[in-house]
Amino acid sequence: MTDERWLEGMVAFVTGAGRGEDGGGGAGIARALARHGARVVVNDLTEEFVAATVTQIQQRGGEAWGIVGDVSNPRDAERMIDATVERFGQIDILVNNAALGGLVPAIERLPDDIWHLQVAVDLSGPFFMSRAALRHMIPRRFGRIVNIGSLAGIRTGFVSGAPYTTAKSGLIGLTRQMAAEFAPFRITVNVLLPTGIRNPAIMRRRPDLFQGNDRQLGPLDPEEEIGKLVAFLARRDVGFISGAAIPLDRGLGSALGNFVEYARRSGKDIG
Amino acid sequence: MQTLQRCDLTGMVALVTGAGGGLGPFIARALAEAGATVAVNDRTLERTTAAVEELRRAGCAVEGFPADVTDSAQVDQLIQHVVERFGQLDILVNKAEAHGSGRRSDEVTDEEWEAVLAVNVHAPFYLSRAAVRHMRHRRFGRIIHVSNITAIRTSVLNGVAYVATKEALYGLTRHLSIEVAQHGITVNAILPGFIVTPKLVSEWGEERIARLAETIPALRAGTPEEVAALVVFLASREAGYITGAAIPIDGAVSVVPGARNNPEAAFA
To answer: Would you call B136 and A108 a contact, using CB atoms and an 8 Å cutoff?
Structure first.
């Protein structure tokens, strides 16, 4: 990927972007935005996670700053966005990437707390963060919000369960409504629907999920693939794509379903 | 091959939440007229009792079970009470819903967000979980979530909390359908468009309704009886292979292109 500095002069905020080399989609997106010239605010839950990505970006000559906070807490969301604007004077790009998923029990065994936690982080989090960012984007009449959803938003999670699918579906509705409301302000809101992002921590836990040379199941590169698309959608001259839900799945979502694959390979509790 | 004359729900027990208002009474009545025993739920004793009395006046065999479906423990008790009273639960129609304020997304409050989430997302989870626990032992169940056409479009009148939570509800519908299909339980969502009840006519007036009807390719609003008929069909044994679906019932308003920011033409 060439490092054309499309995003020069812009400030981007990426949630759940920590862990650097050991990180997943968020870290890759943060690195990609920095390579394209944006100043990047890296958010995650701990100082250690945040520092790993900030250091990585700085070592490559990019500009990054870290901030710890929990997107599912509306006051944290406001604090982090306000701190960003205080430091950099603006916020142009918000990437709502932070999410919780993974194996959960089937519905008859699913406890309240797991349900609430995943819905809070995966759906309420992007709402709280977007609301806070919009308050700054609206008066400037410019903004780019990119939500990192999942193919689960239009199908169901291959590994994750009911709360993840529910929240990731809701994220598409959130995207669409905000896109319609803020088009007159030159703010675009889109949602990406990736499946199987290369994530070292997950690969260590579930090596079985990433085996095989079947390209349709090959994991997505967080920087070169997902990050590249986020950087493109964030461009000042890409105002014509909004309210879009774009699958990043190597065509997997277009295939007719296979319950055996789903039930056996995922290892999930299907009830 | 027998022609499908009408869907016979005789011997089946249905629970309708949010039965006190909107489409609720119509759905409860249609289920009762199709032969089901209907458990009527709304949030308060007053609303539930009023709904029960009106339905009984129309000759329907119904009983009231008030409960706040945003409370997980009350939902478990609700399902338990229905099963204890009638011996079974075959059909769950989740019609309880919260509307949004119509505020722009940057002005939606925490309270509105959480309140709409509680009724439109958390309650359907609690209800579905409790129902599935019972239905899977009988290897039969029908779960029907009453969503809204704005789940797949946008809502000027209700705003972001409503749209996000209605689309989220379709996600729950899809996911659940896969988990429980092998147990003979179907889970579907219906997406009504512009439906006019007598109450809405008195609130909005004939003229406003006529103007909105023009925006619909069918050139009319839908009737609550038409929506109820779809619910009855989905609840029937004949509909056992329909699951994980979101079925619009909207006179094609969701397939015709929209108008940008035209609140005058907004019914949703």
So the answer is: yes
Structurally, chain A folds into a number of domains equal to 1
Burial classification of residue B195, based on how many CB atoms lie within 10 Å of its CB (0-12 exposed, 13-18 middle, 19 or more buried):
buried
Residues 6+ apart with CB under 8 A from B68: B43, B74
pLDDT in tens, chain A (271 residues): 566 999 999 999 999 999 999 999 999 999 999 999 999 999 999 999 999 999 999 999 999 999 999 999 999 999 999 999 999 999 999 999 999 998 899 999 999 999 999 999 999 999 999 999 999 999 999 999 999 999 999 998 888 899 999 999 999 999 999 999 999 999 999 999 998 888 888 888 888 776 655 544 578 999 999 999 999 999 999 999 999 999 999 888 898 988 888 887 777 887 7
Residue A270 lies in a domain: no
- Active-site residue flag, A164: yes
Q: Is A210 on the interface with B (CB under 8 A)?
A: no
What pLDDT was estimated at residue A3?
63
- Domain extent at residue A247: 11-265
pLDDT value of residue B2:
52
Residue A13: helix, strand or coil by DSSP?
strand
Q: What is the CA radius of gyration of chain B?
A: 18
- Which domains are delineated in chain B? 13-250 (3.40.50.720)
Regions of chain B short of the pLDDT cut 50: 1, 3
Instruction: Identify the active-site residue in A164, A166, A220, A230.
Output: A164
The partner residue sitting opposite A107, judged by closest CB among B160, B167, B179, is B179
CA angle (B55, B59, B62) in 5-degree steps: 50
- Name the A residues in 83-122 with CB < 8 Å from any B CB: 106-108, 110, 112, 115-116, 119
Nearest CA-CA distance, residue B56 and chain A, Å:
34
* DSSP assignment of A172-229: HHHHHHHHHHHGGGTEEEEEEEE-SB--HHHHHH-GGGG-S--GGGPPBPIIIIIIHH
Alpha-carbon distance B230 to nearest alpha carbon in chain A (angstroms): 24
In this prediction, residue B257 carries a pLDDT of 86
Whether A32 maps to a domain, the answer reads yes
Predicted local distance difference test score (pLDDT) of residue B264: 58
CB distance from B204 to chain A under 8 Å?
no
Burial annotation B5-18 (CB, 10 A radius, 16+ → b, else e): eebebeebbbbbbb
Angle at B94 between CA A271 and CA B63, to 5 degrees: 110
Residue at A207 is within a domain: yes
CATH number of the domain residue A34 falls in: 3.40.50.720
Is residue A271 in a domain?
Answer: no
CB contact under 8 A, B113 and A157: no
Look up the ipTM and state it: 0.94
